[in-house]
Design brief:
The complex is a heterodimer. By secondary structure, chain A is α+β, with helices and mostly antiparallel strands. Chain A has 3 helices and 7 strands, in the order βββαββαβαβ. Chain A folds into 3 domains: 54 residues, N-terminal domain of TfIIb, CATH 2.20.25; 35 residues, no CATH class; 40 residues, no CATH class. A 3-stranded antiparallel beta sheet of chain A has the order 1-2-3, with no helix packed on it. Chain A is extended, with a radius of gyration of 20 Å. The termini of chain A are far apart. Chain B folds into 3 domains: 172 residues, 3-Layer(aba) Sandwich (Dimethylsulfoxide Reductase, domain 2), CATH 3.40.228; 190 residues, 3-Layer(aba) Sandwich (Rossmann fold); 112 residues, Barwin-like endoglucanases, CATH 2.40.40. Chain B has 19 helices and 21 strands. In chain B, helix 3 runs antiparallel to helix 6 and helix 3 runs parallel beside helix 9. Chain B starts with 12 loop residues before the first strand and ends with a strand. The chains are: A alpha+beta, B alpha/beta. Strand 4 of chain A pairs antiparallel with strand 9 of chain B, so a sheet runs across the interface. The complex binds iron/sulfur cluster. Iron/sulfur cluster (SF4) sits at the interface of chains A and B. Iron/sulfur cluster sits at the interface of chains A and B.
Chain lengths: 135, 528
Amino acid sequence: MNNSIVLTTCPYCGTGCTFYLEVMDGELTGLIPCPTDPISEGQLCIKGRNAHVFVTNGDRLTKPLIKEEGEFKEASWDKALALVAEKLAGVKKNESPDAIGFVSSARCTNEDNYVFMKLARAVFGTNNVDHCARL
Amino acid sequence: MTNSIAEFENADCILVIGSNTMEQHPLIAKRMLKAKEKGAKLIVADPRRIPMMAFADVALQLKPGTDIALLNGLMNVIIGDGLVDNGFIAERTEGFDQVKAKVAEYTPEKAAGICGVSADDIKAAAQLYGKAEKGSIAYCMGVTQHVKGMDTVKSVANLAMITGNVGRESTGVNPLRGQCNVQGASDIGALPDVFTGYQKVSDDAARQKFEQAWGCSLNSSPGLTLTEMFDAVEDGKITAMYVMGENPAISEPNIGHAQKALGNLEFLVVQDIFMTETAQFADVVLPAASFAEKEGTFTSTERRVSRVRKAIDPIGESKADWQIISDLAKQMGSSQLNYGSAAEIMDEISNLTPSYGGISYERLDSGEQLAWPCPDKDHPGTPILHIGQFTKGKGQFFAIDYAPSPELPDSEYPLILTTGRVMFQYHTGTMTRRVPALEREASSAQLEINPADADKLGIKQGDKVIVKSRRGEIETKALVADKTTPGVVFLPFHFAEAAANVLTLDKFDPDCKIPEFKVCAVSVRGKG
Ligand code: SF4
């Protein structure tokens, strides 16, 4: 049996409490508060306390999906990304870079946001990039 | 936040305005209550009788959308009673005279009339905050989600500056952010007009720096905000969209409009962890890894950069968002987004971003607590902003007038609807609605309505009701309680099956484009 705990940051509100995720043999088994965290001081609210639960929910998307005649069909990464690349490149070329809108996320990491906005600006040439900060 | 979360604990007076802190930021509320135990005074202003009011020295249950009148009223008393910090105003600020002249019009009696609270309470609150040695203000979307949101934020800053409550421990102007990385997404440049660290795309020097680093030429004109993008779809100017980790089909105001736009796109790609309402509209859906399956950082509301660490392998074939984007760029023949790890991305961010200059995984992993600005690797970070001087020269006062909300009640739609959140759910519910412990507590939307209004309309506890605005109507259940004042009803926005944003108004603050979620006119009737 291989047990470990991994210190990470709560994915919900902006308070930034940290806690440990408990892992056993590669499976997420629980969550324990971090007594030395300067913000939470070892306490968590009910949302944070249950932050590991949705991760392994059976509804998680596990494969790329492509809509064909109104229905989603599972596809390989290669096929899905090739289609996205072809369609977006087409809009960029035939219409304009500014005909594409990029919506980023206040729930993704800084690194995700950086790479996303760089994709919009450097690869597609548009500044149409925003997230739901206002909402 | 100008100050850190822990500092609330040592404030002498805390003004909480437009923030349901106990339900939305429970671990911040804990600090406020500790301050209270140590003898601090607590002022709470909100349209609803929120839990924090039980602990308040002065509770101001004001009409939705009247915060500016209240703030001007508080300043009127503070100036009149000589509680201003003249030294601070003279040395560190500009434009005080205009504010002084403006707030002179807002006597406590006048403000009380607009806000629907008592003039004595306004005077008492002004005395408490004005006399505090260390006065701290916390606010949230109750203040910002208005057409006049930006003005309200400026008013809050006016109040802090006239009393010299900036740049010292346990003072300041402290917005509490609702999502884990709202602060970071803005810092990192997921905005139409700026690169990382708020460096403007229209600024030649900034743009050239990024052009050089990224090896390409860049567009100098600011792009569209999210809500403008939906308008542009309607006008046929935007035909494709790439949505990562957001659910605008539920979170946008007037979602009828947003959903129509999503449906009209020629091509939509959505990248998320679940099949969201937005993803249903997509042509391609890409499975993303959750926070537990990837490395990265979030920047919290106190500007502190905090590590997200991988605990387990991605579920199914899902991948970290940055990895998917990097793979897509490769497909497009671009090598600009080749990264071996999230740490490498942070290194690029810190190279290009003065305020993140000293931030690295190495420092964070050694346990350092770093709030930006953190300009170099020896810098300890900046928990308190504006010590000694403002980051940008002098503190600017703005004279701000109250103006009524754009849609007020009339005979057809006689009630004010204000929207918000409940403790047990998060945003559009994508994550929390799949957590049984949370669904047990709050699994459906309830319309909070005052007993007086309910009586008039013949509505009883738990009755099915129809809530209607000029945009649309929804069906929900009534929660009859004196949580709201007569004339005001409340709905949370988490629930797709009774989405409050069917009703809300898509009017925006002209400066920061925040929609008016907090005030619109509705009618309510029992569903016979
Ligand atoms: S544990 Fe609760 S208060 Fe702390 S960050 Fe998570 S949601 Fe916010």
